[in-house]
Specification:
The complex is a heterodimer of chains A (614) and B (364). Chain A has 614 residues and is an alpha+beta fold. The longest helix of chain A has 37 residues, at 2-38. The radius of gyration of chain A is 35 Å and the shape is elongated. Chain B is mainly alpha-helical and 364 residues long. Chain B has one domain. Chain B is 69% helix and 4% strand. Chain B has a 3-stranded antiparallel beta sheet, covered by helices on one side. In chain B, a hairpin with a 2-residue loop joins strand 2 (96-102) and strand 3. In chain B, helix 6 runs parallel beside helix 8. The longest helix of chain B has 33 residues, at 262-294. The radius of gyration of chain B is 20 Å and the shape is globular. The chains are: A alpha+beta (614), B mainly alpha (364). The interface between A and B is large, with 44 and 53 residues.
Chain lengths: 614, 364
């Protein structure tokens, strides 16, 4: 039967098709078996990576306080805009294009920021904008669906409450560099670390430990669940410094816009009461991610605001060196207080004429007169008698020409010359004529403000040198950090030497000397001015690059001092006019605080009253 | 037609398999859409479509398939009319003007037209008597019957639906008979035509093809869907993460998860067990259809059933293969399981035809 045969043929073809389908279905089931049974754990990991997002909980940095628990470095809440390439469905350029308008940054800026971190692993967030404004935050939050790769991160940010105040002591922080990451295994990428100042020195104490939280997110990056394994951030330790914010302010205000440095120490303990360097900078700008333009302008500024002049400006000490030299003369029995010289205004040594600052001459002067009136002729002669090596030996013993060991980075050690130094460094025999220059603190000699304060304070305290510290070891031990004791040196110096020198310095301030401006009624201030010549004097101009450096070192009370102040005003002119008033402001504030007459609002109150209409 | 006959001859086994699959579909459609703002009532709508589908299945199963065949010229023209109407007044969704809107419902006429084309091609092929192998003229005629609606669907343009029409012709011609030499020549022509067609493809389609060849190349872009689907399925493991607990599903990492990628949701939440059950039921249904075709009383029944087989076997293989990256990405739903009113209506009607043919089967 034709009909049946025909349909049988068709049926046989159907069977072949059936086998084919069976094979295909078998292959598909095998595919699922591979995915779900053989490679299941691999895909589970991928699924977790999809849904679980780790959020950094940034630890708060320890605060920095002054000695009276007034806050110097605080924290404030802020937000970062971060970009995680791993989460991105877009190319970098697409993301940049979508963000540029919303964040108010140019595409180039964003591109540069991203390119700098291009070598980092893709899961590592890139901070696109630090300290983002509410507008930026709102923009990013509103676009989580389109741009899940961009998100907002909370970060406590450093706030230096007083802005420029004590900036060089405090230092600043910034995002950790690659070099720092290599050196310190405790650091993680994107950490904020100290770059200089106390922020650098005590970084490990100040820096907290970041925590983390894992959240389950959906495809649009919205958090739908928080996993219970949150690790809370551990805030850094607060640090109490020895700085007295009132003295710091007094010094900074009086120094004003002039270039220089001020160091205030308590010679009994080595505590640094104030440390000023001008011009200053606002460390807040670094905390918020300083722009490269701003950083460059700080670097290029001819006044070098980033240099900490208090410990880094090495200048000839001028006449303040006479104190050390006088002591050296007495200690080596080279002179007695009764010896005197006759000052005609100039005298010839080694065939060259050296002048006194007072061309008319001081007449017959003994040691006391010579210190009070800063007679150069007396000290030329004393220096000649001592010779460079005795000067050098004694100066070094008092603390000059070496680091004081303050707990700040980058301290300069200054220069105290000697014959061997000349041979070793300059490879020439020491010229005796140089000794005459050095005798009045000129020529090949350099000290920093902190050395000046340390050495004079030490001498006035009877040869006691306490290592200057901004943070006392007991403060560090309280928060569980080891710290060596404050270094202490006692060099031999006769009581009468101290008495004579201190008395003469008292005379400088109180007996018609060169620094009567530094006088504080009732406080027995002693001091010495210095006016260090700038070598090239061809175009002398007040305030110019070739004007003299003004020095003043003072302490009070004149016996067993509790405070010593060193002031350097670079190109400031005469020490008595430029530097001594700064010391006066500090000593006056100190004395008022000590006697309970200080009111930190006084200055402002007076200013307000003056401007008010009657 | 007597109701008692329908009741006793009805293929309850096939119907049960269909119901279980539909139930799995509804559960996972609910799971896939419960967090979503857009498709909140999808599971309920699907249930409603399935109810309508069941009614249609019974109606079509109760009809004599010969009667459908007799009415096919009219129905065929009505189908063409519906496609032309869609072309003129249809709604554009995802770049294809393939939808007509009736009140709150959207409907894709092309899905139902597919069933009509199955019958039309079956009728043409079944009326060729005493033919061992088709000649070229016959193949072209069959091609035109299928080709007119295909062209209209392709112009919408809805490439995914277009290619689901092709198995009707393919399976029909293969069973009706093609000379082995002709088959070889056709295959060679097809292979040669592929590179020639490349420049005519849109970027979207090119992406899908290059991505199929190299799945790892663009995981954030064109490869995203298949990659996320594989992650969902793989992370489901043997036993699954539990219904409503799939992170890829609930976290909305899976694209079009209640429609094209519903099997990935099943794989994630019900594991290999769930996938094996789903594929087992689909495989059972396909072999039941083959069995029905082999036992069909006449060629018309045989070709109608094999047309249905061709279409839904292709749907199944393409969709299942796609979610694990074995097949290129296309918008073809998984029969009975994926969300979608038009495809549910079409597949239930098609199953009604299969049952209608089975009721009148030839039994030795």
């Amino acid at each position: 039967m034709q009909f049946r045969d025909d349909i049988e043929l068709l049926r046989s073809r159907i069977s072949i098709l059936g086998y084919g389908v069976a094979i295909v279905l078998g292959v598909l089931v095998f595919g699922f078996w591979q995915l779900q049974v053989v490679q299941s754990s691999h895909y589970s990991d991928l699924a977790d990576k999809n849904r679980i997002k780790k959020i950094r909980l940034v630890a708060q940095r320890g605060k920095i306080y002054d000695r009276n628990h007034k806050i110097l470095a605080d924290n404030r809440p802020s937000f970062n805009i971060i970009y995680i390439r791993e989460d991105s469905k877009h190319t970098v350029e697409e993301t940049i294009a979508a963000l540029a308008n919303g964040l108010g940054m140019s595409a180039d800026e964003l591109r540069q920021t991203i390119n700098r971190k291009l070598k980092d692993p893709k899961y590592q967030p890139i901070t696109l904008k630090e300290d983002a404004g509410t507008g930026d935050v709102a923009y990013v939050m509103a676009h989580t669906y389109e741009l899940p790769e961009v998100s907002v991160e909370f970060q406590p940010r450093r706030l230096y409450r007083e802005g420029h105040l004590a900036a060089h002591a405090l230092g600043y922080i910034g995002e950790v560099s690659e070099a720092q990451l290599r050196e310190n295994p405790d650091l993680k990428p994107r950490d904020m670390v100290g770059f200089t100042g106390l922020e650098l020195v005590y970084d490990s104490a100040l820096r907290g430990i970041d925590g983390s939280r894992r959240v389950v997110v959906n495809n649009s990056g919205r958090e739908i669940e928080t996993l219970p394994d949150e690790i809370a951030p551990i805030p850094g330790h607060d640090i109490y410094t020895t700085i007295d914010i009132d003295l710091q302010k007094a010094a900074e205000e009086m120094l004003g816009d002039r270039v220089g440095g001020v160091v205030v120490l308590d010679p009994r303990t080595g505590e640094v009461l104030a440390l000023v360097s001008k011009p200053s900078f606002d460390p807040n700008h670094f905390a918020a991610g300083i722009s490269s333009f701003e950083f460059k302008s700080l670097l290029d500024n001819p006044d070098k605001p980033l240099v900490n002049r208090a410990i880094q400006s090495v200048q000839p000490p001028g006449s303040i060196f006479k104190i050390i030299e006088a002591a050296a003369g007495l200690e080596t029995d080279t002179v007695t207080t009764l010896d005197h010289e006759f000052c005609r205004g100039s005298e010839t040594f080694y065939g060259r004429s050296f002048g006194c600052w007072k061309p008319a001459g001081h007449g017959t002067v003994d040691m006391y007169d010579s210190i009070v009136n800063s007679c150069d002729i007396y000290f030329y002669n004393l220096g000649k008698k001592l010779g460079i090596d005795k000067i050098s030996q004694f100066s070094t013993m008092t603390g000059l020409g070496r680091k004081t060991g303050i707990d700040l980075p980058g301290e300069e050690k200054g220069l105290i010359p000697s014959q061997s130094w000349s041979q070793r460094v300059k490879r020439v025999k020491w010229a005796l004529i140089e000794t005459i220059n050095v005798s009045i603190g000129q020529g090949q000699i350099g000290v920093t403000p902190i050395q000046a304060a340390w050495a004079i304070g030490g001498l006035a305290s009877g040869g006691r040198l306490k290592q200057p510290r901004l943070v006392q070891p007991e403060q560090l031990r309280k928060i569980g950090f080891e710290s060596p004791d404050v270094k202490f040196e006692q060099y031999p110096v006769k009581e009468e030497t101290v008495e004579i020198v201190a008395k003469a310095m008292w005379g400088v301030v109180n007996d018609g000397g060169t620094a009567t401006v530094a006088r504080v009624e009732g406080f027995n201030v002693a001091g010495k001015t210095g006016t260090a010549q700038v070598v090239n004097k061809s175009s002398y101009k007040k305030g110019g690059d070739n004007e003299d450096h003004a020095w003043f070192v003072g302490f009070a009370p004149y016996r067993n001092p509790e405070i010593v102040v060193a002031v350097l005003v670079e190109h400031g002119g005469h020490g008595g006019e430029a530097a001594a008033p700064v010391a006066h402001a500090v000593l006056d504030t100190y004395y008022k605080k000590k006697t309970g007459h200080f009111n930190e609002g006084t200055a402002e109150k007076v200013a307000r009253l003056m401007t008010r209409e009657p | 037609m007597r109701f008692r006959d329908l009741w006793s001859d009805f293929d309850w086994t096939l119907f049960t398999a269909i119901l279980i699959l539909s139930a799995i579909g509804i559960v996972e459609i609910y799971s896939a859409t419960k967090n979503s703002q857009l498709e909140q009532s999808a599971a309920f709508r699907q249930l409603m479509w399935i109810c309508i589908g069941i009614v249609l299945l019974f109606i079509v199963a109760a009809l004599d398939y010969h009667m459908i065949s007799e009415q096919i010229p009219l129905l065929y023209l009505a189908g063409i009319g519906a496609l032309l109407y869609t072309m003129a007044f249809g709604k554009v969704v995802a770049g294809s003007q393939s939808w007509i809107v009736i009140g709150p419902f959207r409907f894709q006429p092309s899905e139902v037209v597919k069933v009509l084309v199955i019958v039309a091609v079956a009728r043409y092929l079944s009326e060729l008597r005493n033919v061992r192998y088709l000649n070229v003229e016959q193949m072209i005629k069959a091609g035109v019957i299928c080709g007119i609606p295909v062209a209209l669907v392709a112009m919408q343009p809805d490439l995914g639906t277009t290619i689901t029409f092709l198995p009707i012709l393919g399976v029909g011609l293969l069973i009706r008979g093609i000379k082995p030499m002709t088959l070889v020549v056709m295959l060679i022509c097809f292979v040669l035509a592929l590179p020639a067609a490349w420049p005519f493809l849109g970027q979207h389609q090119k992406d899908r093809i290059t991505n199929f060849v190299n799945p790892q190349q663009d995981l954030k872009g064109s490869g995203y869907q298949v990659n996320q689907s594989k992650i969902a399925i793989g992370s489901g493991g043997a036993l699954g993460k539990g219904v409503f607990k799939g992170s890829q599903n609930q976290g909305e990492f899976l694209p079009t998860r209640h429609t094209d990628f519903i099997l990935a949701v099943i794989g994630e939440e019900m594991g290999f067990i769930g996938v094996a059950l789903t594929l087992g039921l689909l495989g059972f249904i396909l072999f039941r259809i083959i069995n029905t075709a082999r036992t069909a009383r006449d060629e018309l029944g045989l070709f109608m059933v094999m047309g249905v087989f061709g279409v839904y076997c292709f749907h199944t293989v393409e969709n299942v293969g796609m979610v694990i990256g074995f097949m290129a990405l296309t918008g073809i739903p998984l029969p009975f399981v994926s969300y979608g009113g038009s495809s549910i209506i079409a597949v239930f009607m098609a199953m009604g035809m299969v049952i209608s043919v089975r009721r009148r089967r030839y039994v030795n």
